[in-house]
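hey so i finally got around to running the thing on that chain from the lab meeting. sorry it took forever, my laptop kept dying and i had to restart like 3 times. anyway pasting the input first so we r on the same page abt which one it is
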Amino acid sequence: MGANTRIYALFNPLMQILRPIPPSAYIPLAILWFGLGNPPSFFLIAIGAFFPVLMNTIAGVRQVDGIYLRAARNLGVGQWTMFTRVILPAATPYILAGVRIGIGTAFIVVIVSEMIAVNDGLGFRILEAREFMWSDKIIAGMITIGLLGLAIDTAVSRLNNHLLRWHRGLEH
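ok and heres what got predicted. didnt touch it at all, straight out
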């Protein structure tokens, strides 16, 4: 979508309609389509992670400097080589930023789906503690979610820094 303006013009309105719908709005459909348990959770997690990755990938591909594309064309590279050697490396920082946002969104969706459609997990335990008015367990669950979120974000950030060390080389 990012490299082809016609495809972008065709599908962008649909993406802009679907993108602002929060993954939690899909919960009733997910339960109807997949029942209770893990399948609706997987669907909701995929929805939560999909749009940040897609939108950042499109932005990254659209931001590739035209001089790189013209230089590659002048050297006679094919479309596959253009994609793998020029477009993908130039768009990688955007893609990985989208992955980081998508993983964060997916983690939130995991907790929400555990509260609604799954009979296990931190989200379920927090709601279970609410029923018994165990505020200490609710707070412990919230702190655990925060620590897990921090650990996941730190791991993804370190992976991004490792994968993009070539990109950051001139900055340090």
